[in-house]
Amino acid sequence: MVLKSMDMDIRKLILVLFLLALVFGVAESFDYHESDLASEESLWDLYERWRSQHTVSRDLEEKQKRFNVFKENLKHIHQVNQMDKPYKLKLNKYADMTNHEFMSTRSSKVSHYRMLHGPRQMTDFRHDKTDNLPPSIDWRTKGAVTGIKDQGKCGSCWAFSTVVAVEGINKIKTGELVTLSEQELVDCDKENHGCEGGLMEQAFQFIKQSDGITTENYYPYRAKDESCDSSKLNGPVVIIDGYEMVPEKDEKALMKAVANQPVSIAIDAGGTDFQFYSEGVFIGDCGTVLNMNCKATKEQLGAFCLFCLFLIFVMIAIIETS
Fold first, then answer.
1. Are 306 and 20 a contacting pair, CB within 8 Å?
2. What per-residue confidence (pLDDT) applies to 29?
3. Which of 39, 80, 141, 307 gets the highest tally of CB atoms within 10 A of its CB?
């Protein structure tokens, strides 16, 4: 991606970090046509096709309820896509879920645990003196980003966001991209709360104190809370020496961080537009409740994450090995 010079750092940063992804995975979209909206019958047919594609099973009573939710979501998607917005929405596998249901199964109680753990401890920013920033960077093209993953119905986005940062810096330092275990963090990091949510700082600290984190192959993801299986911790591990925070409300510092490695961030993931985001630069409403984590430099589900970051500027953790 080639970037032209811009006057505002924030605009440059949006483009530099254009490619982001939610760690709950890219939801497969489902196309529809104007004719599908013409009648109740055509809407029902559309819903049946959507259910078939996503293998969604409902009993008769539940099916009618979900159909009504589906229609409301479809109406919202269609209306937003008719507006002159730089992003588009699509029907995805969450199309017959209310926004409350979506958030209850896909988000993480980050704000709650932030309050419990108190204010963050800021340290010196190691990239503070970095001046010669590249006009753009895409860590995918450098092989430092693993494939898109799906957290399932588990509020473990904090674990995914942590892991992808470690995977990225390990690739940068060693030349090897290793897929690491989110489930180890869910099960074994007792400073966090598994599928009920957590904080990336605590997860990074766990990895450091545990002398590393094992691979996905040795400790596969199961999208639920389980007892820590110490027998699975004897496999290969990736070790980190520590972590640090990017200074708050400092876009230039964030640019410097991303120029050196993928970063881990937390955002407010509320809102129906967010639920059905498909492509483009998201400029929808952002709140102040931290409930989702995402990873930088991934395809799709992109600039909404970064844009929210500017508005609420949440915690950013970056990992660096020696």
1. yes
2. 67
3. 307
